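name: query_chain
kind: protein
chains: 1
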Amino acid sequence: MENLWDLVRARWILLVAGVLLGTIGGVMYAGTLVVEHRSTAVVYFAVDRAKTASDYTAGSSFAQSVMPSFAQIVKSPVVLDPVIRELDLQTTPSGLAGRIQVDVPSNTTVMNVTVTDTTSAGAATTANMVIRFLDDAVRTLSPRGDEDNPAMKMSSVSPAVASGSQSAVGSLTFGLVGAVGGLVLAVAIVGIWESLTRPVRSVSDVEFVTSMPVLATIAFNGDRVAASDGPRGSEGAVGTFVLRTNLMAACEKRGGVKSVAVVPVTANGDARAVAVDLATVMARARERILFVDADLRSGSVATMMDAEPAPGLAEILRGTAKLGQVLQPTSGLDFVAAGKADGDAAELLASSWLKPFFRVESGRYKMLLTVGGAAIPVADGATLAAAAEVTVLVARRGHTRRRDLADAVDRLSGSRGIVAGIVLVERRSGISRVLSGTKSRIQDGRR
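structure:
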């Protein structure tokens, strides 16, 4: 259930888009359809001026015998020509006859005349007009009785009426069907995508891929560093405090580790955000920290720390500067920027000066914390892991593939680096924060 909730939060845009597009498509399709509206008028035929019971019986038999003839007359030009003229219809008698259905129930003198039209009002108006001129035709064609009066008399039983709800129901129905279809299609696309990419979504996914422990899960609101948001109780800050506690415990178990590298599985800003967040939390705890930006390809940590981007580590590894010349006290800690690598990032990181620099300078601080480039596909992360005593690997929930996480662990271990654990990062958009808040309120209500 947890994975399903995480999947909905991660792919909500696609799911909502599927519903909206399906709804729009359904309504537009409904608009292209020619909706057929039907309206029926009911009439009754009888022999006029029957005086005795035998007259009524004979008249009824006679009326039943002529009903098929009158049914044929309904669709004849005798009736339909005046209907077309009266209503100014853009059709012919044969065209109008194709939209008329005449039904005479067995052994009755009742006739049902049903007209089909694109509008409900049009169907009702045409049906009633057909009945009107059918009455004129019956009077004209009926046999004559005494005083030259028509022997057959037609009476209206139920005039045709318009129904105004059919088209609205049609659009609503197609819209709902389209919404369901769009959602099903979006779910299918998400399912196929998930089966192909198999991203890491939970702690259990990490445990399935590797034996490395999950040190913490950290939620960032967009691109903001959680710990700098203010309140200690915020979700992102809590994750960072958990990371600090678990990391310090892991370092103590290894005999007091002094240098820690933070490396992302693939190139993104997650490791930089985690490292800046962690360094800020440790500095607030009055721990003496040396924070080094070893991501020479990006060099963007200086901006996050409100520091100068150069000179920095690149100049130290090149031998053109010493620590005292590049050290920048900021945010309660000592910071070394990446400097200007000038396209030589990989060569500088592979320098024999990197590991001794970490070893010597970490001895002057409680901890040297460094952040580097990706573990795959480049070698930056592996090089940094080999220089530091332990490495924290950062994966993004819902984006980092399980296969990539496994490959990153293997690459760091293959470089003789020691992976202390995994950090799961979640970048939350506005709607994701709303969904998370809703989930929390539901869980609180259950408690």
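note: Confidence is low (pLDDT under 50) at residues 224-233.
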